[in-house]
Every structure is written in structure tokens, then in C-alpha cells.
Automatic annotation (TrEMBL):
EC number: 5.4.2.2
Lineage: Eukaryota, Metazoa, Ecdysozoa, Arthropoda, Hexapoda
One GO CC term on file: cytosol
The protein, known as: phosphoglucomutase (alpha-D-glucose-1,6-bisphosphate-dependent)
InterPro entries: A-D-PHexomutase_a/b/a-I, A-D-PHexomutase_a/b/a-I/II/III, A-D-PHexomutase_a/b/a-II, A-D-PHexomutase_a/b/a-III, A-D-PHexomutase_C_sf, A-D-PHexomutase_CS, Alpha-D-phosphohexomutase_SF, PGM
Alphabetical list of PANTHER family matching this protein: PHOSPHOGLUCOMUTASE, PHOSPHOHEXOMUTASE FAMILY MEMBER
Alphabetical UniProt keywords: Cytoplasm, Isomerase, Magnesium, Metal-binding, Phosphoprotein
Length: 555
């Protein structure tokens, strides 16, 4: 087979965001668009590209198979020696991370737009993960982006035909060199890892002893994983799992596990006889946990509860518990567990890539984000199925219900009330203007000490800034990671523009506030946080700038 060089032109805007390049499918379908980006990923590997092995797979969304085909042909032309590809292109994001680490590959290419809707009129995405299994750090994505602004040709083996529907190895002869493609079972290696981490005997006993779960894969990639792990291995009845067939358009839904987009699950768990409900996003790295009667566990609390119970998971008995971390906007509940257990604690910018160095350095065991992401150093991505198995391990060990676990946690540590308001798909210019004005206001010297009152509560500004982070391991610096307003009592308001949307701007407004008074712990977060929400809207003038009276989604 022969390599050909194809002339191409630069496409603007191939800049990876919080988690890879995410655009409308129609954008990726433009002539050479996908090819350009894939070529730049491989070019950015430099001398590590020739002879390398890469993992390839994604969440099964529309355009995934075409993208895999292009990657095979371009990888072959660039001297990659082997690709490990999930059958039919299916691999969850955590499974890719697992495979990269297990087979010590140079990296992997993940084809997903995560929680964004799929289908011909929706989104697609391409993300590169490095040899540690984690999303490429800013340094690498900046290199890839720089290459996309200069590209003039890409290399391809146009005549290579490689079906991806059957497990097995295929070899090709490309200009005298052997190129191998191994199509692998999408679930097997990930399942083996889960069996090393958790006590499957204990979990099976729980699920067969009357503890009922309802698990919703939202027609994303986790379906086959749920079937194999929860049904075949742990013996959950098959009708306790729903939407387990991966669909290219996720059934027309938004595959995002939260109270709004997983409303069907909430309804079923609220009215049914289930002890735990769970849902995952399109690529399987996010999770939502519900208790009986749909008692909602915020991701920030979920992280804190797991941190407080790691002794229930065999893996951590082996590795010990190193430290804890959360992204900056995440509610500060885990901070208290870290302090009480005298473990190291880190706050990092939004995006899982910022946890990787800490894990690689052996300083971080468990971390999470408010955006329904929870995970540990077993891989370098957040992991939805892992999170559910972790919760089941805790419940099997303590014999408590989800709700009682939370009440006990708040009783010990107090409760951090948290909410996030999303204003999706707003016009970009006014949002940028809002952020600019807000930054000027909150960083001006006179902002400190300002008093804001609402609903009978008064908050005094302690500090305001645009969050910046220096990685403790390699000293890399990330600036402009979100506007923070911190009050004297520890409450925080945070504003960010999303880095995962494919068009327009999405404003995220986060509110975190601590309450030690036990009598208030069962209150509704929206009631408790109302004064702070009003203050946030007032300070930012969000309604004026966005023209939106209400958020698109509240989580
Ligand atoms: C969002 C979340 C962030 C998460 C990212 C990727 O980013 O806020 O916490 O890491 O999505 O999640 P942003 O920039 O839109 O706020 V997912 O499940 O892609 O992989
Ligand atoms: Co995701």
C-alpha cells in the first residue's frame, strides 16, 4: 500500500477546549477538516509517532465510524505501527484511559463530544490522551493547535480497507513496513480492572440480597459495560438497566446525567422501589447518584462521601490514600474530609487534565468535579461506572441507605450547599463583555469589604479574582480559569464561560455556601442559596447582558 500526500488548507478554530476539539458534525464533515486535526495530533507527537501504538475508540455517536476510518488511514501513513480499536469503534472514555495504561501505548484518540447531543445536526469531538492515559495537558493541545494554523498537507493511505466490526488482528504492508490493527472487545480490559479494584463477591451479594438498582445508560457508550458488569457479573436483573443500547443520536436526547436531562430516571426512582439510581453521560465518564425516592446526591457531596469511606474499597487498601482534589468551582465539602483525615488537598482548574500530574506524582488518590465527574488514580479520566461501583461498595460495607449516609456525613462535617446555573447558547459578544466588566469590578481594590444583602442575609466580600493555577509538579501555569467572588463566611460565587460547547457561549454560574447548623441540613439547596443566587445575578448583571431571565439548566 502507498502513502499519498494530500494538499489541504488551514481551518480556523481547531483549538481544543476543556476536553478536546468539539464542533458540530457538519464542521467535521468539511473536506479535510477531520484529516487536518488528526494529522496535527500525530505531527505533535514528533519522533514518538513512528513505531507507536495508539488506542482509538469513542462513544458510538454519529460520524464516529467515519472518523475511525480516517484515523486508521492517516496513522498508517504516518508510521504508527499499531492501533488498538474498540469493536465498532466503541470505547468509553475511561476504557480508553485504562487501555493506554495497561498496554503502555503512546496515547489514544477519543471520539466523543461527551454530554453534548449527537446525530447529523449535533456535535462530534476528537480528543488526544497521552501515555499516562489522561487528556493532553495545555502544553500538548497548544502544540496541536499551533500545527493546525500552519498545515498544508496531510499523509494518508487512501486504499487501506480495514473493517472494525470483528474482533481480531489485521496486518497491512505500507511501503515496506508492517501496520497492525487489532480490533478489541470494548469491555474486557475495563472489566478486569474493575475486578481488581472492587470486591465483586460483596457487590454481587448486595445486588442479589434485595438491594435494587436502576441504571440508565442514556443510550450512550456505557450500555455494553453495564450489561457485562452489572447484569452478567453482579447479577442485577436486566430490567434494572435501561437505555443500554448505544445509539448514534442517543435517542434524540442530551446524554447528560443530571436532574434535567435524566428526568425519566428521576421519575422512575422517585416512584419505584429502588435503593439506588444512576445515570451516565454519552462517553461514560460522568455519573449521577440517586438514593431511594430519588434523593439527589450532588457530585460535590458524592466526592466528599467517597473520600470519607475509601476503606470500603479494596484498591485503596493496597495503594493507601494519598490525597484528595477537586476542581475550583466544585463545592468545598471534600476539603473538610481532607482536613479531618490529614490528607493533602488540591484545588485545580476545571477539566480532568489538571489532575493527571498529581496522580502521576503519587500525591492524589481521589478527585472530582461538580459537573458529575468522580474518579481515582486507577486511570486518568473520570469514571462513571467506577463511581457507581464505589458507591455500592460503601453501601454494602456500611449497610446504610444513600440518604442516611449523606445525613451522617453532614452531621459530622456540616453541609456545603451547592448549585450551578447554566445559560446555554447565548450570544458570545455580550457574554465576553459581561465577564470583562465583572472582572474589572471584582478585581478593583474597592471591591473588598463590599456588603451585599438579600433575603435577610448579608455577605461581605473578602476577595475577588480571576482564578489562576500553578501545577505543583511541573509548574505549568493556567490563568483566567474563572471569576471568583469569595465572601467572609466562606461562601463563593464563580463565573465561567464553558469550554465544551460547539457554538455561542454558555455561561456557568456556581454558588457554594457552608452551613454548620444541623437543623438546616435537610433544606432544599435552591431555598438556602436563593439570596446568594440573587446577589450573583445582581453583581454580574447577567440578565441584562445575556437577555435571559432563567437558566437553561440548574444542577
Ligand atoms: C465541562 C465541565 C467540566 C468537565 C468538562 C468535560 O466543561 O464543566 O467540569 O471536565 O465539561 O466533561 P466546561 O468547560 O463546559 O465547563 V465531559 O464529561 O467532556 O468529558
Ligand atoms: Co463525558
Amino acid at each position: 500500500l502507498k502513502v499519498t500526500k494530500v494538499e489541504t488548507k488551514v481551518y480556523d478554530g481547531q483549538k481544543p477546549g476543556t476536553s478536546g476539539l468539539r464542533k458540530a458534525v457538519k464542521v467535521f464533515q468539511q473536506v479535510h477538516y477531520t484529516e487536518n486535526f488528526v494529522q496535527c495530533i500525530l505531527s505533535a507527537l514528533g519522533k514518538d509517532c513512528a513505531g507507536s501504538t495508539l488506542v482509538v475508540g469513542g462513544d458510538g455517536r454519529y460520524y464516529g465510524k467515519e472518523a475511525v476510518d480516517k484515523i486508521i488511514k492517516i496513522a498508517a501513513a504516518n508510521g504508527v505501527s499499531k492501533l488498538l480499536i474498540g469493536q465498532n469503534g466503541i470505547l468509553s472514555t475511561p476504557a480508553v484511559s485504562c487501555l493506554i495504561r495497561k498496554y503502555k501505548t503512546t496515547g489514544g484518540i477519543v471520539l466523543t463530544a461527551s454530554h453534548n447531543p449527537g446525530g447529523p445536526d449535533n456535535d462530534f469531538g476528537i480528543k488526544f490522551n497521552c501515555s499516562n492515559g489522561g487528556p493532553a495537558p495545555d502544553g500538548v493541545t497548544n502544540d496541536i493547535y499551533a500545527l493546525t494554523t500552519k498545515i498544508s498537507t496531510y499523509s494518508i493511505v487512501a486504499d487501506l480497507r480495514c473493517p472494525i466490526d470483528k474482533i481480531g488482528t489485521q496486518t497491512f504492508e505500507v511501503e515496506g513496513k508492517t501496520f497492525t490493527v487489532e480490533i478489541i472487545d470494548s469491555v474486557k480490559d475495563y472489566l478486569e480492572l474493575m475486578k481488581e479494584i472492587f470486591d465483586f463477591v460483596a457487590l454481587k451479594k448486595l445486588l442479589q440480597g434485595g438491594f435494587k438498582v436502576l441504571i440508565d445508560s442514556m443510550n450512550g457508550v456505557t450500555g455494553p459495560y453495564v450489561q457485562r458488569i452489572f447484569v452478567e457479573e453482579l447479577g442485577a436483573p436486566v430490567d434494572n438497566t435501561v437505555r443500554t443500547t448505544p445509539l448514534e443520536d442517543f435517542g434524540g436526547h442530551h446524554p447528560d446525567p443530571n436532574l434535567t436531562y435524566a428526568a425519566d430516571l428521576v421519575k422512575s426512582v422517585a416512584s419505584g422501589n429502588y435503593d439506588l439510581g444512576a445515570a451516565f453521560d454519552g462517553d461514560g465518564d460522568r455519573n449521577m447518584i440517586l438514593g431511594r425516592k430519588a434523593f439527589f446526591v450532588t457530585p460535590s457531596d458524592s466526592l466528599a462521601v467517597l473520600a470519607n469511606h475509601l476503606e470500603c474499597i479494596p484498591y485503596f487498601k493496597k495503594t493507601g490514600v494519598k490525597g484528595y482534589a477537586r476542581s475550583m468551582p466544585t463545592g468545598a465539602a471534600v476539603d473538610r474530609v481532607a482536613a479531618a483525615t490529614k490528607k493533602e488537598f488540591f484545588e485545580v482548574p476545571t477539566g480532568w487534565k489538571y489532575f493527571g500530574n498529581l496522580m502521576d506524582a503519587g500525591r492524589l488518590s481521589l478527585c472530582g468535579e461538580e459537573s458529575f465527574g468522580t474518579g481515582s488514580d486507577h486511570i486518568r479520566e473520570k469514571d462513571g461506572i467506577w463511581a457507581v461501583l464505589a458507591w455500592l461498595s460503601v453501601l454494602a460495607h456500611t449497610g446504610k441507605s444513600v440518604e442516611d449516609t449523606l445525613l451522617a456525613h453532614w452531621g459530622t462535617y456540616g453541609r456545603n450547599f451547592f448549585t450551578r446555573y447554566d445559560y446555554e447558547n447565548c450570544a458570545s459578544d455580550p457574554c465576553n463583555e459581561m465577564m470583562k466588566k465583572l472582572e474589572e469590578l471584582i478585581t478593583s481594590p474597592s471591591f473588598r469589604g463590599t456588603k451585599y444583602s438579600n433575603g435577610g442575609k448579608t455577605y461581605v466580600v473578602k476577595e475577588g479574582d480571576n482564578y489562576a493555577y500553578t501545577d505543583p509538579i511541573d509548574k505549568s501555569f493556567a490563568s483566567k480559569q474563572g471569576l471568583r467572588i469569595m465572601f467572609e463566611d466562606g461562601s463563593r460565587l464563580i463565573f465561567r464561560l464553558s469550554g465544551t460547547g460547539s457554538s455561542g457561549a454558555t455561561v456557568r454560574m456556581y454558588v457554594d455556601s457552608y452551613e454548620s447548623d444541623k437543623s438546616k441540613h435537610s433544606a432544599d439547596a435552591q431555598d438556602i442559596l436563593k439570596p446568594l443566587v440573587e446577589i450573583a445575578l445582581e453583581v454580574s448583571k447577567l440578565k441584562e447582558f445575556t437577555g435571559r431571565q432563567e437558566p437553561t439548566v440548574i444542577t
